[in-house]
Amino acid sequence: MSFSVDLRRFRDKVEGRQGIFLRKLALDIGSSVVLMTPVDTGRARAGWLAGVNTAPTAIGDMATAQEVIERIRQSVGNAKPGDTIFLVNNVHYITILEQGRFADSDGIMRGSPQAPSGMVAETLRRFQHWVDGAASTARRSL
To answer: Under DSSP, is residue 49 helix (H, G, I), strand (E, B) or coil?
Structure first.
């Protein structure tokens, strides 16, 4: 076996692990945001969509949390190193839910008591946790 073949194998292994890391991180973050989204009608939770290199502009079809997570898994399933993964929710009131519980200028409480710290903000507070988990999965693979 030649040195160049060894280098190609090493490169392929590293790129494979990077892809696994990227997809696992996107799925874990997406899952966290979906599961933390407050549910009244289910519209906001079902609104989460993922895209690779292009941000989705649609509003997700009604679905259970597990169906939304599976939709995210399928969307990021072919992501590779260098790709940009978008996780979006185009439901018109998602920003209000993300802001959590707050008093408006008139002192009226707004937002959702179900997610007082928001969904995305709370997930991002745990970002290192998600990175560590994805890295561990990537290290064990291939």
So the answer is: strand
